[in-house]
Specification:
Helix content: over 70%
Number of helices: 18
Strand content: under 5%
Shape: globular
Number of strands: 0
Largest sheet: none
Structural class: mainly alpha
Order of helices and strands: HHHHHHHHHHHHHHHHHH
């Protein structure tokens, strides 16, 4: 017992020193962070936006142009699944994507996507300011800069990725559902359902969050509206392709199954490949998806930002993702800031602040450190993975504490 008491005493002393350091130097550290993010934002956006709009390189706007071709082929009645190497979005995604690119040429689409990407990042900034519990001017500036300065945004901008457009409406819709539970209104539920349905345009990013739609409100109407909206879009999409609702989804799943791989880093797919168990990728993904649903159902009364953060980390890990989808980690960053700002227990506040700093540093570092060809990837990827898993464990422990206190 004596060694344990000494260990606890040292831990308490360390926490006290960290709390004192923040009280003394916190605002100065925030200003340093703001300066770094201003430089990073100008550098990253200034480098990647021109590549998205005018770039002719192999990866410049590659995903955006693939989606542009896929949508145009879909509504022209030309085959997509199996006919296009990158035609792997589900049927309902095509009516959702058409207003963004189906009526424009390639050049106009690239301009339009650049403008809407900046608007979406601005939406994330606004959500962060209003949801983070930031109080001082410097805290609000720090939070507002994060979406523009972190590497996932710039990585996604260059290739024209969908995560930047899917995450803000998903977060906004889920918060609207949760807060409408106290005073349910049909118009509010309809708006939330529309936002979430659009976010489902990229299922690999947003599908895990669907479990929150099922459970966080304790009401059927939001879930029914989302399901009806998605079904309507899927039925609309079938009118432009040979086959019916069932056969097109079977074709999509069959084609998507051929796309399973490990082009990214830190996911259940990369871990299975390292263990020479690549044949289990699909089964493992579905298992993790199901476990996430069960966990969210059990802890549905926990604070929504904790639930969304757990879903975000699981969504990042459940299938293979590349660096642009790391924008999902913006959600636990906001949750950790909220906890560090208002949690009554000092130990929890300091732990949340420490994890926030680690996640922030990891997302500010150059994304090239995470590519398999970089000489530092062998250390950068494991460090980032440990940070994510530690954050997941911390949030799950907090969720258990919330449930325990509620029972008591």
């Amino acid at each position: 017992m004596e060694p344990l008491a000494k260990h606890n005493s040292r831990a308490v002393g360390l926490l006290a020193r960290l709390a004192a350091l923040w009280a003394r130097e916190g605002q100065r550290l925030l200003k340093v962070g703001i300066g770094l993010m201003i430089v990073a934002a100008f550098w990253r956006l200034g480098l990647e936006l021109p590549r998205l709009i005018w770039g002719q390189g192999e990866v410049d706007a590659v995903d955006l142009l693939s989606r542009h071709l896929e949508v145009r082929r879909w509504f022209a009645g030309l085959p997509v699944y199996g006919a296009m190497a990158n035609g792997d979005y589900p049927p309902a995604s095509h009516p959702l994507l058409w207003p963004w690119m189906g009526w424009l040429g390639q050049e106009a689409t690239r301009w339009f996507w650049a403008i809407t990407t900046l608007l979406m990042l601005g939406w994330l900034s606004w959500l962060g300011i209003h949801e983070s519990r930031a109080e001082t001017r410097w805290e609000k500036i720090f939070i507002a800069l994060m979406p523009f300065a972190l590497y996932p945004a710039s990585a996604g901008i260059r290739v024209g990725q969908m995560a930047t457009h899917a995450i803000p409406p998903m977060v906004a819709g889920l918060l609207l559902i949760q807060r409408s539970s106290f005073r349910p209104k049909f118009k509010r539920d309809l708006l939330a359902a529309a936002l979430i349905t659009f976010a489902l345009v990229k299922p690999t990013v947003s599908a895990v969050f669907f479990w929150l739609v099922c459970f966080i409100s304790g009401r059927w109407r939001p879930l029914v509206l989302v399901c009806l909206g998605y079904l309507f879009l899927a039925l609309l999409a079938t009118h432009y392709q040979e086959g019916n609702l069932l056969t097109l989804h079977i074709d999509w799943l069959a084609h998507a199954g051929t796309q399973l791989g490990t082009r990214g880093h830190a996911s259940i797919h990369t871990w299975l490949e390292a263990a020479e168990l690549s044949d289990w990728m699909l089964s493992a993904s579905l298992l993790l998806f199901g476990i996430a649903g069960i966990w969210i159902a059990i802890y549905r009364r926990v604070r929504p930002w904790i639930l969304m953060s757990v879903a975000a980390i699981v969504a990042r890990l459940w299938v293979d993702h590349q660096v642009f989808d790391d924008l999902l980690l913006w959600i636990p960053l906001i949750a950790l800031f909220r906890i560090a700002a208002r949690e009554p227990t000092q130990k929890v506040r300091v732990a949340a602040a420490t994890l926030f700093a680690l996640n922030w540093f990891a997302l500010m570092a150059p994304a090239r450190f995470l590519t398999a060809t970089h000489p530092l990837s062998w250390v950068a990827v494991p460090i980032q993975t440990v940070i994510w898993l530690s954050t997941l464990l911390f949030l799950m422990v907090l969720a258990q504490r919330d449930i325990s206190q509620e029972v008591v």
